Amino acid sequence: QVRLVESGGGLVQAGDSLRLSCAASGRTGSSDVWGWFRQAPGKERQFVAIASLRTSDKDYADSVKGRFTITISGDNGKNTMWLQMNNLKPEDTGVYYCAASEWWVRGPEWFGIWGQGTQVTVSS
After folding, report:
1. What pLDDT digit, counting tens, does each position of 45-58 carry?
2. Pairing verdict, β 46-52 and 58-60
3. Per-residue pLDDT reduced to its tens digit, 108-118
4. Three-class DSSP category at 72
5. Residue 11 and residue 42: Cα distance in Å, rounded?
6. N or C: which end of the chain has fewer CB within 10 A?
7. How far is residue 113 from each of residues 64, 65, 92, 120, measured CA to CA in Å?
8. Quick count: other Cβ atoms within 10 Å of Cβ 31?
9. Who contacts 109 (Cβ-Cβ below 8 Å, separation ≥6)?
């Protein structure tokens, strides 16, 4: 079964930048919409951004628009995705997950392939 693996999380101060990466252990087949979600303690998993492997389409949550950039690359079936996070704020703190779906949607319930998550902590 294909798995996604995230990396790049850490502890930073407000205003700093981080770059998260997500790589697949194999081909994700028809799941060509990749996205980032985050979950803060005691809160539901929240949409951050999605991108299409087949088109240049991208979508961002309003809370990160203008600060975060999602990029995705599919070379020889080994896909990699990044999330460049600039001007980080304490409210960006959470576990960040990458995921893949067949659908162009924001709801995490539509994503069937997930990574294990990477912690991002932003101190004020």
Report:
1. 999 999 998 898 99
2. antiparallel
3. 999 999 999 99
4. strand
5. 19
6. N
7. 23, 24, 23, 21
8. 20
9. none
Phi, psi dihedral angles at 110 (to 5 degrees): -90, 0
Per-residue pLDDT tens over the stretch 20-71:
999 998 888 888 999 999 999 999 999 999 999 889 899 999 999 999 999 9
pLDDT exceeds cutoff 60 at 7? yes
d(CA 46, CA 95): 10
Contact by Cβ (8 Å): 101, 112: yes
Name the phi and psi angles at 26, rounded to 5. Answer: -170, -165
How many helices (H) and strands (E) the chain has is answered by 0, 11
What is the pLDDT, as a whole number, of residue 75? 65
Token duo for residue 45: 């998993």
